[in-house]
Amino acid sequence: MSTVIANIEDDDNLNYSYQLCMEDDGTYYLWRSSGFLNGRVVFKGVEDIKDALRLMMDYVFEYEGVIA
Question: Residues of the chain with pLDDT > 90: what percent?
Fold first, then answer.
């Protein structure tokens, strides 16, 4: 079971939602939701939370055009 560490979502029209999660083994992954119970893993296996947060922010900025 994974734990959600951070969540970013589009408050206006819910076009996207991102969850940075920690796996049981202590690594991090980013989930991009694309609808109710639908989505995909953007990256996984990151060991350092600082790196995972940086990757999350970079991805959201690059693909959504917003600064989280």
Answer: 57
Report the amino acid identity of residue 7.
Answer: N
State the Cα torsion 50-52-53-56 to the nearest 10°.
160
Residue 23 CB burial class (10 angstroms; 0-12, 13-18, ≥19): middle
**Residue 35: CA count within 13 A, CB half-sphere:** 1
Q: Does residue 23 contact residue 41 with C-beta atoms inside 8 Å? A: no
How many of the other CB atoms lie within 10 Å of CB of 55?
Answer: 16
**Whole-model pTM?**
0.83
Distance, CA of 1 to CA of 24 (rounded, Å):
6
Identify each DSSP E strand in the chain by its residue range. Answer: 3-9, 17-22, 28-35, 38-46
